[in-house]
Design goal:
The chain is of the alpha+beta class. It contains eleven helices and nine strands. The longest helix has about 40 residues, at about 45-85. The radius of gyration is 33 Å and the shape is elongated. It binds 3,4-dihydroxyphenylalanine. 3,4-dihydroxyphenylalanine (DAH) binds near residues 242, 276, 298 and 299.
């Protein structure tokens, strides 16, 4: 059995070492076999032999441990040499990347709400009818379902058409006060110069007990938000309709290109539509089992804002991965 000392010392890798360990210490290993031989010895011999065996056992066990550590270290060194970062490779000729304009725009939006203590909540991209429509006061056959042409799966699951279902998920798991934003991807069957089948939205939701939350609160937050995003612009609220808010409004900013005089971008109206908002509809609160609360919600598309900020004429170009475009955003 002493020959195992040499065998361990000359093991080339961890696999070989493990095999040796099993050969020695395994249930059917050489140690077990030797110990079982004790039975056939006289008492004196037994004592002597057992002592020797135990010394050898400790020696082999220590040796295995040491060898394992040294082989591990060697393996680590080899992998560092193979995969490690060679810092001498970076020099002036190496170009830095940059955030994608959609990500950068999203970050700028999040930054504003973060400063006001809004929490970020995320929801699944594959949603069900209840969260995406039903609980948001869009029952089956409601005509407003057509506003968002949906990708359906076979099992009544769907790709979420907006970030509004995160309102529902948050209210179902938390109690007011709620103050969240939810950025993320959404999907609709749409493709032209201002629409792609996948795009991004940010949703906002504020709920408090009692009637603490007013439209004035909503107006204040959004006016400041739009100034944060676009600088010195005029903001106007237009009455509108969304099933999940009542009253609802759409919010426009004065055209950042012609300063409100009228141009091609604003269809000569002087105004650009940016977001939808309103006071949370009582039916939505009912769907999540809330009583005696008040709140507002809003939602807007990230790509649309990125296009305006960077004067990108065709939304689809944001997703072509063309470096000539992306390099302009460094
Ligand atoms: N979910 C709407 C959409 O995708 C946007 C929206 C409008 C969200 C009004 C809201 C809201 O929370 O209050 O078009």
């Amino acid at each position: 059995m002493r020959d195992y000392i040499q065998k361990i010392k000359s093991a080339m890798d961890l696999n070989e070492l493990e095999k040796l360990r099993v050969e020695i210490f395994g249930k059917k290993g050489v140690l077990a076999a030797s110990f079982s031989k004790l039975k056939s010895l006289s008492n004196d011999e037994k004592k002597e032999f057992a002592k020797e065996l135990n010394v050898l056992k400790t020696q082999l066990s220590n040796l295995l441990q040491e060898k394992k550590e040294s082989l591990n270290k060697k393996a680590m060194e080899i992998s560092m040499q193979k995969d490690g970062v060679d810092v001498t490779l970076f020099d002036a000729a190496c170009e830095n990347g940059a955030l994608h304009p959609v990500q950068a725009t999203m970050d700028k939006m999040i930054e504003y709400f973060f400063g006001l203590n809004f929490e970020i909540q995320e929801g699944p991209l594959v949603e069900d009818d209840f969260h995406n429509f039903e609980a948001l006061n869009l029952p089956e056959f409601h005509p407003a379902r057509d506003m968002q042409d949906t990708f359906y799966f076979k099992d009544s699951k769907l790709l979420r058409t907006h970030t509004s279902p995160v309102q529902i998920r948050t209210m179902l798991k938390e109690k007011p006060p709620i103050r969240i934003i939810s950025p993320g991807a959404v999907f609709r069957r749409d493709l032209d110069i201002t629409h792609t089948p996948q795009f991004h939205q940010i949703e906002g939701l504020v709920v408090e007990e009692g009637n603490k939350v007013s439209f004035a609160n909503l107006k204040f937050i959004l006016e400041n938000f739009l100034t944060h995003m676009f600088g010195d612009v005029k903001v106007r609220f237009r009455p509108s309709f969304f099933p999940f808010t009542e009253p609802s409004a759409e919010v426009d900013i004065s055209c950042i290109f012609c300063k409100g005089k009228g141009c091609r971008v604003c269809s000569h109206t002087g105004w650009i539509e940016i977001l939808g908002c309103g006071m949370v509809d009582p039916n939505v609160f009912k769907a999540v089992g809330y009583e005696d609360v008040s709140g507002y919600a809003f939602g807007l598309g990230v790509e649309r804002v990125a296009m305006l900020l960077h004067q990108i004429p065709d939304l689809r170009s944001l997703y072509e991965g063309d470096l000539r475009l992306l390099e302009q955003f460094k």
